[in-house]
Automatic annotation (TrEMBL):
This is Mannan endo-1,4-beta-mannosidase. Residues 1-24 form the signal peptide. The keyword Acetylation does not apply. PANTHER family: CELLULASE CONTAINING PROTEIN, EXPRESSED, FASCIN. Residues 59-198 form the DUF7910 domain. One of its GO terms (biological process) is polysaccharide catabolic process. InterPro entries: Actin-crosslinking, DUF7910, Fascin, GH, Glyco_hydro_5. Pfam families: Cellulase, DUF7910. One of its GO terms (cellular component) is cytoplasm. CDD domains: beta-trefoil_FSCN-like (cd00257).
Amino acid sequence: MESQLPVLVLLLSCLILISQSAKAAPNPSPTPIKAVNLGGWLVTEGWITPNLFDEIPVNKDLLDGTQIQLKSVTKNNYLSANNGGGSAILASQSSASGWETFNLWRITETTFQFRVFNWQFLGLDDQDNLVATSTSSSDSDSSHTFEIVRNDDDPNRIRIRAPNGSFLEVKPEGLVTADYSEDTNWGDDDPSIFLLTNVRQLQGEFQVTNGYGPDKAPSAMMNHWNNFIVEDDFKFMSENGLNAVRIPVGWWIRFDQNPPHPFVGGSLQALDNAFSWAEEYNVKVIINLQAAPGSQNVWDHSGTRDGTQSWGKTDDTIKETVVVIDFLTSRYANRSGLYAIELLNEPLAPGVTLDRLEKYYKAGYDTVRKYSDVYVIMSNRLSIRNPTELIQFASGFSGSVIDVHYYNLFSTLFEDMTVQQNIDYVKKYRAYTIKSLTVPNGPLIFIGEWVDEMDVSDASKDDYQRFGVAQLEVYGKATFGWSYWTLKNVEIHWSLEWMIKNEYITL
Ligand SMILES: *[C@@H]1O[C@H](CO)[C@@H](O)[C@H](O)[C@H]1NC(C)=O
Ligand SMILES: *[C@@H]1O[C@H](CO)[C@@H](O)[C@H](O)[C@H]1NC(C)=O
């Protein structure tokens, strides 16, 4: 008896503390949501829907942002931008890495601009030698536009027609000059022949729309929007224990039918449909700005053209993004389905600084509040050491939510983990982090993306079930709730629809 008394006192004082902080909170705690993302729908991600790229008619392996390397057959060396750019291009390197890698801009089906490691564009100097000195360009700038001519039998054997009309050739000393004629035997003795290696491809909205081009893109995208997600999917969600949906959208949605090139109109109509279906099946909608003007990270899903990340670097990109939030909130503020607006998905540090991000989050929050008292979600930056960096800041805004994404992937940390180690990691480390994010009078916490996938090659159905249960248990403690990435995906574990139908996950 005696020894239990201090414990009781402690317990009581804890209870009093908890009830006091709950009273002081501006908004009552909501019931945490169980949501799913509609990834790959209104913002293309080729790894989710590879078939969407199938019908691109010409050079579908050379879309915007594709990284290529070029080896001269006569010199047996790669073209290289010394110091990553700023001077001449030489056929000087026997192996290839960053300085030997070129990022494509696709101008037409067969013409391209090339950006080097430090992002300068290829062009010719006054002696018609190949250089990488220009820091800006545009699609209409023909002085940076080259034609790629591929060999019919071996498409990775190419020639490059320079802006002055002649083909590039490698001189014996390694200089590259635009003075080779039309004639070729495509042989290993022809200094105008290069071997092309495709190192990496981007497969986002810019790539798919520009790949199809202005004639074919509108129907290809419309077909995708109308068929990838349909009314029945909302019925499926409501019948399987899901009560919310997080819908990624791109900044171009605000232009409705007339977005800037190469994006095409129609995604706004699809979002309207989603609202109607969501309301019919009692599913709450979170609009998530997945792709912001200038791109807030380097990946396909930020709408980037070539992997550059320039969101937040200027006030213009922040202002333009606020306009998108204004458009979306004013359009849907009166819809009963609207539950939250997520201001920005996965801003990447250090390119996006905390200072710029907070400036935007304040402006974005105030913009939402002009129309609506729905929750306002602020995404944590990726690649940061301190996951609580926004907690204090967000505490100043009532109805704010911090979004964190948890994947036991994309890091060497998880490479050699067993199934049990993955489960333990979630139960210990993730649970601890969620706890540390959850403070009295602070923002609500949202696990806006997670997946029942791990870096274990021979995991069984039972393993996936156990890993799923562990994650549901831990993420179920998040005060705002969670959202699985994603509803549909050719990668089965990334498809919650598949996981539910095949009884890997039960909600
Ligand atoms: C391109 O420049 C080279 C070197 O100055 C020159 O020999 C060639 O004739 C030029 N090509 C055209 C089509 O003007
Ligand atoms: C939304 O509702 C408010 C208040 O009922 C009304 O004043 C406003 O015009 C509505 N906005 C739209 C876009 O329907």
